[in-house]
Amino acid sequence: MQNTTLKQTTIQTAPDELVAVNGQRPQVGIMGGTFNPPHIGHLMMADQAANQLGLDYVVFMPDANPPHVDHKETIPAIQRVEMVKRAIAANPLFKLSLAEIDRGGISYTYDTIVTLKQQHPEIDYYLIIGGDMVDYLPTWHRIDDLVQLVQIVGVERPGYSKQTPYPVLWVDAPTIALSSTQVRQKVQQGCSIRYLVPEAVADYIEEEGLYHE
């Protein structure tokens, strides 16, 4: 039942509409994460990467069960998907994919990229991650194979080094020290989250009573 509801909220991606122009292959960004909740930092990262790299669009892909070394509690996928849908609605460069949620289980990025490339070998994919996640790359599932399949794009974050043994393409974007954890903490403390998340996301959090416990 939950998957049926989720599919009704999906913003359809349209890779079949992308064709090579002047010999250039379509370029698509992938922005994965738990998005618990999505905040303005996520949107800034995706928008800066899309514009600086000339991407055709960026797909936001909420995970089913994050493979983090440090366990993170999350809320049901249906609520995270609805927040992402609201967060990205105003930007035509942004789309939503339920690929990892529909697949279920642990959301290993390697498995996702392999599937995408099998389905659309004509597309070049760019995996957009924050500078904090670059530090985690050595722990990622089949990371040495993953970097052969996709270009990893790192977005600087305050307090995190750009040094990494992996081929990361860094994007020069405004740095903002904001995380989903901080947003949840603000809600728990009864503080304002205005300007930390899109207004539509803040409204949904209030409507659903999320993060108050």
UniProtKB/TrEMBL annotation:
The entry's keywords: ATP-binding, NAD, Nucleotide-binding, Nucleotidyltransferase, Pyridine nucleotide biosynthesis, Transferase
Principal EC category: transferase
GO molecular function annotations of the record: ATP binding; nicotinate-nucleotide adenylyltransferase activity
Enzyme Commission code: 2.7.7.18
KW Transferase (keyword) present: yes
Entries under Gene3D superfamilies matching the protein: HUPs
SUPFAM superfamilies attached to this UniProt entry: Nucleotidylyl transferase
Any single biological process term in GO: NAD+ biosynthetic process
Source organism superkingdom: Bacteria
Pathway assigned to this chain's UniProt record: Cofactor biosynthesis; NAD(+) biosynthesis; deamido-NAD(+) from nicotinate D-ribonucleotide: step 1/1
Domain Cytidyltransferase-like: 30-186
UniProt catalytic activity: nicotinate beta-D-ribonucleotide + ATP + H(+) = deamido-NAD(+) + diphosphate
Stored InterPro entries: Cyt_trans-like, NadD/NMNAT, Rossmann-like_a/b/a_fold
Function recorded in the entry: Catalyzes the reversible adenylation of nicotinate mononucleotide (NaMN) to nicotinic acid adenine dinucleotide (NaAD).
Sequence similarity: Belongs to the NadD family.
Stored PANTHER family: NICOTINATE-NUCLEOTIDE ADENYLYLTRANSFERASE-RELATED, PHOSPHOPANTETHEINE ADENYLYLTRANSFERASE
Name recorded for this polypeptide: Probable nicotinate-nucleotide adenylyltransferase
